[in-house]
Model the fold of this input.
Amino acid sequence: MSSPSAGNRLKETAKNAANKVESTAKEAVDNPVQAKKDFLHHPLTRAALPFVNGGISGMVATTCIQPIDMVKVRLQLAGEGVRTGPRPTALGITREIIAKGKVLDLYTGLSAGLLRQCVYTTARLGFFDTFQTLLQKRAEQKGTQIGFAERGAAGLTAGGLAAFIGNPADLALIRMQSDGLKPPEQRANYRSVFDALKRITASEGVFRLWAGATPTIVRAMALNFGQLSFFAESKAQLKTRTSLSETNRTFGAAAIAGFFASFFSLPFDFVKTRLQKQQRGPDGQLPYRGFLHCAGKVMKEEGPLRFYRGFGTYYVRIAPHVMITMVVADYLKLVTA
Done:
């Protein structure tokens, strides 16, 4: 007797669930705006949206900018350990990459770049927006406005946290982009970012995935201080002092933020690239012992200006990336408001 009874209860439960789904779907069709609001204004959705929007905007920007990033990495690794010699150019490196393979070789490491944005930009923009919301609420309670110092602290904190989380994907990206600089017999020929992460972990240990974490975190803090803090401040100042449209304010603030992000972060990005690219030589030793040793060695052997090699390329990479990221993020905020 219990088995048929249990079967009937199960059928009744399934029928009720189906009716509820049908009713919800009908309500969404009849009143899509309200259905959208109900979902988008759920507390969990509101908490997740800054992170989701940040990740999507970062991945869109990376897809557009990846070839420039590839050239930037090759510029930083050219002439390692040599003060003098031929000075590589962005155009020359681009021609060399295309001549050796295909145009699509400029997109080497895209999977790692997208994974990095999925982790890193999701975290940094999500944390920054969350911090901004909390700061705005506190400012409103006090009857004041958010200051540049508070925006700066939010940018520094968001950048540092996100960089630590995203370091493994960043290291895989550098390894994949620098692999083509090695002789053919020494290349790893990674098939994808997951293949790179797996092989690096197997051959060098899991903690190797956080190689260069210190300069990565410092670079991210410097970059996000320049990008997020100056973007938010510039946009606020342009709104107060000019009659520019919302779109023009976004592009103008992004261009300003791109310059300061590049200026503050390039030296740390340079050291980070060197540390993440290095591998043990035949003697089992690494070329650099750490952040300070790498910076000191470059300063001594290659000169202080080497830290700013490729600034133009770096800015051309950073500024559009900032602009695309912030424009897409602003649009996503608008449609999910």
In short: Residues 148 and 233 are 6 Å apart (CA to CA). The chain is about 75% helix and 0% strand. The mean pLDDT is 82.
